[in-house]
Structures are given as structure tokens and as C-alpha cells.
């Protein structure tokens, strides 16, 4: 049994996949921002409750929604997820089982798109994101993570959610060990136009930088070093990074040929990293945020056309 927390504006195909997997003792907490959001008029499953979080103040809309749901959750086993995750039929049973076996368990995301320029950056997102989630305790992924509320300072976590942006990077700060499972490798189809890609990638970088600045700078330094080496030995570097990308795709079971864009990803990565570190604001879910420091967030505006719902 578990409390499953699902922030969403509308009832999506991913939500329906999740609803079909609920067991009788599970509770699904669907969280939206406003009473007039489309999901508020949807007929939810019998063991689901709708929560209205309202406008965030000093935090992101996602963090605000998760904080409210955690205050209402009745089960010890918590599952956080998103409304755009592709789920197998046993996704929920698997993440709950792994959580009981290992404690805090995170799925591994695969961000995919059929649009450019994001498609050029797929190798970057798949290789770097899977490495960060799979090989370190640096960050969990809010699209699929479970933990036992008795094993963390839940009151402190909820309080910090209401003064930061990233629910998943913050969760990693409250857990001693995170297990990333290859049983939970989930595709997330995202829009990939120029503006939305810029917002998404710089947000990712900003999250990493706010919670672990030294490691973020170390990864940036590594990308710059490899790019510099490409000036001296372009064929060797191009072959090596492409091989690494293709190997990681195979390891994660990704049946796409975008690994061939490993070299463009390598060249674009430092530019996005520097933009994410230096850029003062970003757009997420229709709101623009000014993120001064880890726990210092200003919500600037709503209604930008460059929305990013992930």
C-alpha cells in the first residue's frame, strides 16, 4: 500500500495508466493549482482524492503541490510521479516492491523528442541524466521515486519544499542512500522546439548547480576538456563520445538512433551549462522563476508562451 502523489493540470494518458494499477489500499492524491484546472472536472478513480494547492509563494508550483499532498498522505510508503511518464502495466507494483526492498528508490528518466533542437541533445540528457541518477546519490527523479516517510525528516522536507524549486533534488538531501533501478527506466516524451528546449535544459542545469555547485562545475569542466581535446584529435574524440552514447543507449534499452548526435550534444552542453549557471530566470509550467539561492525563490509571472510542463 502507498500514497501516490500526482501533480497535474489535466488527466493524461499517463495518469490513466497509473490509475489502472492502483490496489485497493493505495491512495492517489491528484494535485492541481486551481479549481478550474481541467483535471478538477475529471471523474477520478474511487481511491483518488483531488487537492487544490493554489498559487505558489516562494517555491515552484510542483514543490508547492508535493508539499500539500505530503501533508494529506496517510500511508508510510510514498510514491512521487508525473503526468507524462510512460508506464508498463506493473510500474506501480514494481516501484512499491523495490521501495520495500531498498528504501528510497528512483526510476531512471529518458527524455525523448521528435523535435529539434532537443533531439540533438538526447544523447546528453540520456547519458548525463542516467549517470547522475544511476551512479550517484546526487539527485532523485520526481517522475518516479519512492521513499518511506518514517525514514526522513518529513516535516523538514515539507517546509523546505515551500522555499525551493526542485522536489527531487531536495529529496536526495534528506535521504542517506538512493537506489536507481534498471527495472524502472521510463520514457518521457517532451516538446523540443528552440525556446522550450532552452527553458528545460537550463532549468536542469540550474537545479544541479543550486544543490551541488562544485559537482556541476566539475562536469562542466569535463565537457570543456573533452571538447578541447577534440581540437587536437577530432576523429578520436568523435568516435569515443559516439561509442559511449551508443553503449549507454543499449544498456538502458533505448531503441533510437539519436546516439549519432553525441558530438553535437558534446558541443552544445557547455553552452547550456553556462547559460543555466548564469541565467537569472527560467520558465516552468507557465510560471517564470527567479531562483536566487537554494532556498530563495521568487515567482515572477504567469502565462509565458514558453511553458514546460515536465
UniProtKB/TrEMBL annotation:
Organism: Natronolimnohabitans innermongolicus JCM 12255
Subcellular localization: Membrane
Gene Ontology CC annotation, any one: membrane
GO MF annotations in UniProt: glycosyltransferase activity
Lipid bilayer topology: Multi-pass membrane protein
Pathway: Lipid metabolism; sphingolipid metabolism; Sphingolipid metabolism
Transmembrane intervals: 217-239, 259-278
Coiled coil segments of this chain: none
Keywords on record: Glycosyltransferase, Membrane, Transferase, Transmembrane, Transmembrane helix
Name under which the protein is recorded: Glycosyl transferase family protein
